[in-house]
Amino acid sequence: MTDVTSDAAATRLRRSPLHERHTAAGAKFAPFGGWEMPLEYAGGGVLKEHAAVRTAVGVFDVSHLGKARVTGPGAADFVNSCLSNDLRRIGPGRAQYTLCCDDATGGVVDDIIAYLYAEDHVFLIPNAANTAEVVRRLRAAAPERITITDEHEAYAVLAVQGPRSGELLAALDLPTEHGYMSFDAASFTDSLAEVELTVCRTGYTGELGYELVVPAEHAVTVWDALFAAGKAFELRACGLAARDTLRTEMGYPLHGQDLSLDITPVQARSGWAVGWDKPAFWGRDALLAEKAAGPRRTLRGLVAVDRAIPRPGMTLHVGDKQVGTVTSGTFSPTRKQGIALALLDTDANLADGDEVQVDIRGRQAPLRLQKPPFVTPSTH
pLDDT tens digits for the chain (380 residues)? Predict the structure, then answer.
């Protein structure tokens, strides 16, 4: 993640409909998936923003995430024949984590949240950088009766996360009682407008949380209302740097690091998001073969024994033998030590509790294998 330092660079990036609000709050910006988004805010920074989500409530603007709509007779069946997870495990009004895999290799094109509205209506939220490719693949496979619409800039997405997130939304008369990975349509009214939005019990932090899918033209209205009500709940605006430390503490994968075209769901230990019994989905044959044979490497969790902070791309060793590579690594504000996700060679036969060495600029530092999550989130 690098800062956007020139006006010329910024003009090539998309901006959230909340960009002016972030600027006024003293946000430090960085490019994410072709968008200029807040990395952290003045007066807070990563540590305070991270703590707010673990102890009270924070709000992230994640409008850079993609949005695509699949409609038409049999839309749900079509999506189910393409993406990895089984939509038949859920019903209308529920959301599901799923994967778009490459049909030939089983590598992960993207990880996606699918909102099942009805048999003829599925809404998808992919990652920003991969939205166009996911849409392209779906359109190439879709029969004439199915329409895939790229709505990337039509909606803002606000992630309200933390143990007090439900209290905050309830103060705005928004729904909060629906179950995890379910969503409700809602109406929010202020003195200026009546806003129709979707409230989903999802997030990327491990805490109680909700994601609000809001028409882009009403994003400022909802943002301002959250902060007006949020003073009573210690609400803090949070940037994508805190989002990264929070998700790493939970062991949640990030596409492009822990999942990619070169890293399959079997290697990433994401087989729970694969409908293995489905007759068809992209990558099925390759993934079934890899599962049967056993992957050559798997994603594991690591914690630092000393003060080392592992970073993506660092190599891992046992003695003189390289046994893996760090895919995600950071300092855990909650544990106050380094944590990481890493791809480790299966034939190294490493178990939780074993130690490996990470190469940090020529210095070998010990890391201990530990199954994520690395922290215990608040009850939700």
Answer: 333 334 434 458 999 999 999 999 999 999 999 999 999 999 989 999 999 999 999 999 999 999 999 999 999 999 999 999 999 999 999 999 999 999 999 999 999 999 999 999 999 999 999 999 999 999 999 999 999 999 999 999 999 999 999 999 999 999 999 999 999 999 988 777 789 999 999 999 999 999 999 999 999 999 999 999 999 999 999 999 999 999 999 999 999 999 999 999 999 999 999 999 999 999 999 999 999 999 999 999 999 999 999 999 999 999 999 999 999 999 999 999 999 999 999 999 999 999 999 999 889 999 999 999 999 987 65
Q: What is the pTM of this model?
A: 0.95
Report the distance separating Cα 239 and Cα 371, nearest Å: 27
Q: Do the Cβ atoms of 342 and 300 come closer than 8 Å?
A: yes
DSSP codes, 43-80 = TTHHHHHHHHHHHSEEEEE-TTS--EEEESTTHHHHHH
What residues are paired with 359 via a beta bridge?
Answer: 364
Order of strands across the sheet that contains 121-125: 94-101, 108-118, 121-125, 68-71, 147-150
Torsions phi, psi for 190 (to 5 deg): -130, -170
- The two beta strands, 321-332 and 235-238, are unpaired
Nearest to 93 by CA among 118, 123, 72, 112: 118
The residues that bridge with 374 in the sheet, in sequence order, are none
φ/ψ (deg, to 5) at 116: -95, 105
Q: Which long-range contacts (CB under 8 A, 24 or more apart) does 79-82 make?
A: 79/114, 79/122, 79/124, 79/138, 80/275, 80/278, 80/281, 81/278, 81/280, 81/281, 82/137, 82/138, 82/141, 82/281, 82/282
Q: In this structure, what DSSP letter does residue 131 have?
A: H
Radius of gyration of the CA atoms of the chain, in A = 21
Provide CB contacts within 8 A for 246, sequence distance 6+.
50, 53, 54, 161, 204, 205, 206, 207
User: What is the H or E stretch that residue 326 is in?
Assistant: strand 321-332
φ, ψ of residue 125 in degrees (nearest 5): -120, 95
* 3-state SS class at 323: strand
